[in-house]
Inverse folding.
């Protein structure tokens, strides 16, 4: 029973870390309409920043400053936010399709840098000995997973409340206006590029924080952790939960991660060991089938914003005449 509860805590911790990434993407896409396909890159920036700053001294690579974990998390947010802002300044003038290609290129560059700069990131061997919160409890997995779950819950709740406040503030309403009708928003004196860079930077900072939290939860990171599959997972989580809804981002993350982990467990039971690596692609198939079903039943996602139909000027005039 204790082992089952410990696994449940581990599962929820992982799902909530994904939900933190999805919250950042929801700010960029759901609220602002920015098509970011470089999610994995910003997560990696946050993870490596915190790992380099908080690990013990290592003669084999740069870093090992032994900073406190909380300081590493804050530095991860700042670094990923700055990287996202620079990317935004350079690319947000592009249309959605070109923006997607550019952000994907950024993620590939980050992954290749992590893979080849061994003196900084450990190269393909990654970064180990990352300090873990409550690391003294690591010998008792149940209590360690439980305390980590509590820590991640606090981080996710704070991020959720902060993003909810921003989305309901005048700043958030400007972002929605830019998403729905940029011409009308600009005609009222709002700078589309200024607001979009801000949204892109804050979303990137949240993704960087998620990467740092994940790195300290696992205790080890490597370039293979930040492949395009990560971006695919996060996008599916947001679409299933509902784009434009922070609650949907949380729900979609937990639901999709449950299907991903569950399908992996089923494959490990029914597929021979020598075929499991090849059969792992069936996890993506399972997620794809679920995504198709969700889009057919609820195109806006489970908790997504309802699609608001714009009234034409003629319809508005006709309606006013009928009422008069």
């Amino acid at each position: 029973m204790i082992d089952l509860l410990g696994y449940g805590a581990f599962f929820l911790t992982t799902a909530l870390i994904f939900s933190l990434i999805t919250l950042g993407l929801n700010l960029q896409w759901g609220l602002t309409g920015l098509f970011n396909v470089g999610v994995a890159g910003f997560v990696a920036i946050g993870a490596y920043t915190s790992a380099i700053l908080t690990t013990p001294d290592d003669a084999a690579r740069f870093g090992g400053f032994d900073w406190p974990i909380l300081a590493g998390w804050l530095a991860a947010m700042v670094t990923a936010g700055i990287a996202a802002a620079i990317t935004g300044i350079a690319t947000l003038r592009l249309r959605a399709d070109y923006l997607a290609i550019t952000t994907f290129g950024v993620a590939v560059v980050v992954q290749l840098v992590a893979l080849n700069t061994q003196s900084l990131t450990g190269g393909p061997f990654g970064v180990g000995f990352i300090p873990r919160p409550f690391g003294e409890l690591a010998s008792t997995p149940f209590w360690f997973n439980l305390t980590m779950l509590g820590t991640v819950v606090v981080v996710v709740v704070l991020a959720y409340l902060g993003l909810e406040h921003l989305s309901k503030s005048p700043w958030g309403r400007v972002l929605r206006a830019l998403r729905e009708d940029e011409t009308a928003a600009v005609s009222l004196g709002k700078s589309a590029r200024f607001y979009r860079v801000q949204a892109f930077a804050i979303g990137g900072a949240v993704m960087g924080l998620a990467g740092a939290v994940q790195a300290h939860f696992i205790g080890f990171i490597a370039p293979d952790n930040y492949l395009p599959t990560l971006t695919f997972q996060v996008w599916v989580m947001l679409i299933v939960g509902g784009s434009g809804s922070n609650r949907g981002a949380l729900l979609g993350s937990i639901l999709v991660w449950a299907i991903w982990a569950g399908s992996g467990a089923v494959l490990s039971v029914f597929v021979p060991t020598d075929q499991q690596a090849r059969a792992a692609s069936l996890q993506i198939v399972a997620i794809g089938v679920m995504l198709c079903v969700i889009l057919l039943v609820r195109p806006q996602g489970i908790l997504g914003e309802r699609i608001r139909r714009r009234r034409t000027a003629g319809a508005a005039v006709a309606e006013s005449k009928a009422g008069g």
Summary: Residues 2-227 form one domain.
